[in-house]
Amino acid sequence: xxxxxxxxxxxxxxxxxxxxxxxxxxxxxxxxxxxxxxxxxxxxxxxxxxxxxxxxxxxxxxxxxxxxxxxxxxxxxxxxxxxxxxxxxxxxxxxxxxxxxxxxxxxxxxxxxxxxxxxxxxxxxxxxxxxxxxxxxxxxxxxxxxxxxxxxxxxxxxxxxxxxxxxxxxxxxxxxxxxxxxxxxxxxxxxxxxxxxxxxxxxxxxxxxxxxxxxxxxxxxxxxxxxxxxxxxxxxxxxxxxxxxxxxxxxxxxxxxxxxxxxxxxxxxxxxxxxxxxxxxxxxxxxxxxxxxx
Amino acid sequence: xxxxxxxxxxxxxxxxxxxxxxxxxxxxxxxxxxxxxxxxxxxxxxxxxxxxxxxxxxxxxxxxxxxxxxxxxxxxxxxxxxxxxxxxxxxxxxxxxxxxxxxxxxxxxxxxxxxxxxxxxxxxxxxxxxxxxxxxxxxxxxxxxxxxxxxxxxxxxxxxxxxxxxxxxxxxxxxxxxxxxxxxxxxxxxxxxxxxxxxxxxxxxxxxxxxxxxxxxxxxxxxxxxxxxxxxxxxxxxxxxxxxxxxxxxxxxxxxxxxxxxxxxxxxxxxxxxxxxxxxxxxxxxxxxxxxxxxxxxxxx
Lengths: 294, 301
Known about the structure:
The structure holds two protein chains of two kinds. Chain A has a single domain (about 70-260, about 265-290), classed as MetI-like (MetI-like fold). Helix content of chain A is about 70%, strand content about 0%. Chain A is built from twelve helices and two strands, in the order H-E-E-H-H-H-H-H-H-H-H-H-H-H. In chain A, a hairpin with a 6-residue loop joins strand 1 (about 40) and strand 2. Chain B has a domain at about 75-250 and about 275-300: MetI-like fold (Orthogonal Bundle). In chain B, helix 3 crosses helix 16 (about 265-285). The two termini of chain B are about 25 Å apart.
């Protein structure tokens, strides 16, 4: 790090203190508390707590409901972030070319950022309603053609569509900025050496976009989880048959509806570990391939 | 461009138009449905023919639901959260970039680590902390019972922030992305500026107020708008942190419009509500699109 100019050490801590206090209270303390509760049996409404060792973990890991929820969470994280980053990448590559529609597209593709995940959930659940929505006529022709309330595959298609819609802006902005920072000379040099547009995409654009792609993938994995709650709460409520009961949603219902504080905290610890692992795997395997030199 | 790429340009144009349709079609459906009356809607089901009932729907939202009040709540919480995040990020990034000291790397790492785990993941215990912010003081005071031995009873401070504007907004500030972006920006400012300021006799705080802040006006407004919108669209935390209708935010209120569902939901009314809830941030985005993009991509240069 460069640029350290002032040497007033107490001022350094004084300036950083407000943010550190807020972070301690509402980021680090909730994590510590989750670990505490995971090893205690917490009574709701301040009814006392009792150390129980690994009993909570044994209970949670012994339930098949937990495992299907964890599986769905992992699947959702991978597919939701994958589809939204892929869509944003394709759109960014297209918008990077100087076309007539590019300026309009660059403006409009950022609009979904202004729509909350819960709002787009409310909207999509209406548009894709099997009896009242846009696909209802097809259901009249072929009964059962589209029913996200009973068909798990349809439910997930609906969720991913809403998630992609909502997640385009951030990835699009970052990826497009990365593409535009690639010097034109590289394109020209590549073209002179006989590389066609597809070849240049593979050998120039994508490798040089590495840092941005990496950032976007890492952030999108965490974002897909935090956005999933708004979508699930308004679209599926965890159904059909618990198929979309992701851990984020399960923890909420276990904790706030069933008052199983210890169980919810134990699953919180496991979920945080899962996210940390996925992020760690990305750093280990993806970041190695990223080339930061331009 | 470089060579004749008309066919590729055509493909790219088609992709962009498909993308535009995908983004705009749901919004168009919302607007059209909001103009239909409930009776129209029941009679014709889904239809892309605009009706004439928008004013009626809007009047019903405005007078018979809590959405107007909740929209005001969103404005207040959004403003507090944005201002707070910017203020915290400015002081922290200033400390991290401009001050020598053993702590700066540690401070930076502690802040950046918070980006990886969003508030939604630890909702249960974050709720517990907000229900009693004095929790850590109590815990330290009662560790080993020394407080009770000194004063006769264990310390039991209670400071409940649930259902207050502070309780909704401050936990949403506990996230380091704003600081990350500002640190990158401060590093692009030439260090000679600060050296010159020292020679002219300015102290660290004077330099921050008179030179650094005016210089960062553009990025700070862009970040502020972005953070306002980010707070506006939050759902899970405002849902659990505010239980009274007086503190509920607009997005939560919109999602609850459909809850009394015995009959077929009044979708035209819901879509009218969606317009009210979405329009303020959408206008901000459309107007400040360039600035926001520039503000966000600072870190990517």
